[in-house]
Structures are given as C-alpha cells and as structure tokens.
Design a protein that fits this description.
Blueprint (H helix, E strand, L loop, with lengths): L2 E14 L4 H15 L1 E6 L2 E4 L10 E12 L1 H14 L15 E7 L4 E2 L4 E2 L8 H10 L24 E4 L1 H10 L19
Antiparallel strand pairs: 1-4, 1-5, 2-4, 3-4, 3-8, 6-7
Helix pairs in contact: 1-2
C-alpha cells in the first residue's frame, strides 16, 4: 500500500553541498510539492560544516513540514527516487559530498524501527543542522519515543550554524517557480500513478 486513508505530517530534512546547493534545495522542494504532498512549513536555509570534519564544501540545510498521503515506506521510496533523479549516486561512501540528501525526520507520532527506515531519524537528536531548522518549523515538537520536548536535546545548538536564506525568501522563490517539476520519464510516482 502506498497511500494512507488519511493525511500525515512528515518532517523532511534537505541538504546539499554540491552543484549550487541552494538551487538544488529549491529543485528538491519543487519535486516534493509535486510528488509527496503540500509543503506546510519551511525553515531558514542554514549552512554547516561537513559533519565528519572532512575537507568538502559546506552543507546547505533546511527542514520542510509536508502533509502527505504516502505511507512511511512509500515516502522513503519517493525521496530516494527524487535523490536519484537529482544525480545522487546510489552507491557512495558514507558522509561523502552530495548534490541532494533527503531524510525523513518524523512521520506523525510514529516510531518505525525497520532495517530500511528508522523514525525518528537517528541523527535528529544531536545534529544541529537538523534539529535547529526542525524546531524553527515546529518549536513544540516532542520526541515520539520519550515524550521529551525536542528543544531539550543536545542538537539544539544554533551557534554552529549560519543562516543564509530566510524562510520567507524561500517561500517567495517557490511561489515564483510556478508549477512544480515532474520527475523524469524513467520515474513513476506511487502517489499519482505516473510513469
């Protein structure tokens, strides 16, 4: 099953550090608007150093709140298809530079522990480039596992981030872009049955 009977709110982290990262984030948001669901909230775009300290370009990151009909596994498959369409290699070294990275942080209040998908995302609690933008979009969120407000976790550290684009500017950019992009002809959307 790829569609739910009801809508769910998913929080998706977007990141890029290759090939015009800001434009890549905007392109990914357009794909998400068309193939995943309605974007209901956006964080500022923040820049962070590579997580592993390696010598690669800085990462541009944001979080989107999306209302979707997709099940968690269908959402994961869709995000992976978007990554592939945007040039992210399927096989790549861990922590390597990438044109786009899309991760499900939260899916409603569900806790999912599968080999292919873990929700809440395991890095959510201690990665400032994920937790700070998430809390900007939804400041009162609680951890679905413990019930503890996410603002109390160690990753809530804005000091290591630099804001480069405000959410209001990103919304303007999305409105200007008009109709969301469709994925390439080799792609099939489980939400709309496209091919």
């Amino acid at each position: 099953m790829v569609r739910r009977g009801s809508r769910a709110i998913a929080y998706i982290a977007l990141g890029s550090n290759l090939n015009q990262p800001y434009q890549r984030l905007c392109q990914a948001l357009n794909y998400i608007r068309w193939h995943v669901g309605e974007i209901r909230g956006l964080s500022d775009v923040v820049v962070s150093s590579p997580w592993d300290g390696s010598r690669q370009p800085p990462y541009f990151n944001l979080v989107a709140e999306v209302e979707t009909l997709l099940t968690p596994m269908a959402l994961l498959a869709m995000l992976q298809d978007i990554e592939k369409e945007m040039g992210r290699p399927v096989a790549r070294p861990r922590w390597s530079a990438r044109p786009i990275d899309l991760d499900i942080l939260l899916y409603g209040e569900e806790v999912i522990l599968l080999s292919a998908l873990r929700v809440p995302h395991p890095g959510l609690y201690w990665r400032p480039f994920v937790l700070v933008p998430l809390l900007q979009v939804a400041p009162d969120l609680k951890d679905p596992v413990t019930g503890v407000p996410l603002k109390y976790f160690p990753g809530n550290n804005r000091d290591v981030l630099r804001t480069v684009v405000r959410a209001s500017s990103l919304w303007t950019e999305l409105r200007r872009s008009g109709q969301p992009e469709r994925l390439g002809s080799s792609f099939s959307s489980p939400l709309f049955g496209e091919s």
